[in-house]
Amino acid sequence: MRPDDWHFTEDVDDFLARAGHFLRSQPGRHIMQLTWAERVRQRGADAFGSEAPLFGVLEHGGEVHATFYRLPPRGFGLSPLSPEQADALAVRLAALGNPVPSVSADDRTAALFAEAWQRHTGATPKPRETRLRLYRLEALTPPDPMPAGRGRVLGERDLEQAMFWCGEFARAVGEEVSISADTWADTRFADKRYTLWEAPDGTPVSVAGMNPLIGGQIQVDIVYTPADQRGRGYAGAVTTEVSRAALAAGARDVVLFANLSNPTSNALYQRLGYRTLTDWAVYDFVRDTSEGPAT
Fold first, then answer.
1. Are 67 and 30 in contact (CB under 8 A)?
2. Phi, psi of 250 (to 5 degrees)
3. 99-123 in b/e burial notation, b at 16+ Cβ within 10 A?
4. Contact, 232 vs 199, CB < 8 A?
5. What span, in angstroms and rounded, lies between the C-alpha atoms of 23 and 12?
6. CB 24 within 8 A of CB 107
7. Helices 31-43 & 12-25, crossing angle to 10 degrees?
8. C-beta atoms surrounding 188 within 10 Å
9. Which residues contact 162 (CB under 8 A, 6 or more apart)?
10. Rounded CA separation 38/262 (Å)
11. Alpha carbon distance 285, 46 (integer Å)
């Protein structure tokens, strides 16, 4: 595997033409590449910052073996890599002077690239405390009994409700984002479909969102219940409703991420029929500035 086997492009259509079949062959493991490539395709290359997105495809022997994406100033998102593939990518990026502020991938791949990047550049990898688990729905098992109330899909007239709930979710997880009528279209929340669980008196008590159907797959994202409404089964009910909606929309696979530090949500998703696909990690890279600028 040679560093030159990696093909770099700023053209998302070129990226998808080269790697689309490969990505769709295992959509769960490539959820981030598929999602962000589609967002760039839909919104345009300039929608996520002043720098152009960068995509990479590892082609060898006429076949695609791996991919990456980067939307500056964000870090790199990698598909699963072998040690040789991770090393070849690190060599290529270092030789071209491409900055790597962080890397996000399945646990094994993230660790492999972090080691390779440190080896070739001297940058120190720092794993983030937040670690995620990616689940895939095997067979939906709704709560029995379901809590009192009903699910309601938010439509175009419910924009203020959607913005409110996404703002509450973002604050709860520490996500730095400005959500208003002026900024909404530029956020990652704008392309989702939301379902509220409402108590019998019509009070909204929990929300779940789902991304568009991409590569036969839908990601459930977000799930949020205010602290004063937890422990009543609302999260299970709204996750069930949005999972049903994803299946009804034609999804062959339904996936979601959960924070591994939250045993309650992980146990809930498993009761509903979600099974572990892979664990996820993010490494930030730090370099001693006394050694000069990082590559």
1. yes
2. 105, 10
3. bbebbbbbebbbbbbbbbbbebbeb
4. no
5. 13
6. no
7. 150
8. 17
9. 154, 189, 194
10. 30
11. 26
The four Cα atoms 67, 76, 218, 158 give a dihedral, to 10 degrees, of: -150
Terminal C-alpha separation, the chain:
22
236/259 Cα distance (integer angstroms): 16
Q: How far is CA 204 from CA 226, 230, 269, in A?
A: 10, 13, 21
Residue pLDDT tens, the chain, 295 long? 788 999 999 999 999 999 999 999 999 999 999 999 999 999 998 888 889 999 999 999 899 999 999 999 999 999 999 999 999 999 999 999 989 999 999 999 999 999 999 999 999 999 999 899 999 999 999 999 999 999 999 998 999 999 999 999 999 888 888 899 999 998 999 999 999 999 999 999 999 999 999 999 999 999 999 999 999 999 999 999 999 999 999 999 999 999 999 999 999 999 999 999 999 999 999 976 554 444 4
Phi, psi values for residue 168, rounded to 5°: -65, -45
Separation of alpha carbons 193 and 156, rounded Å: 10
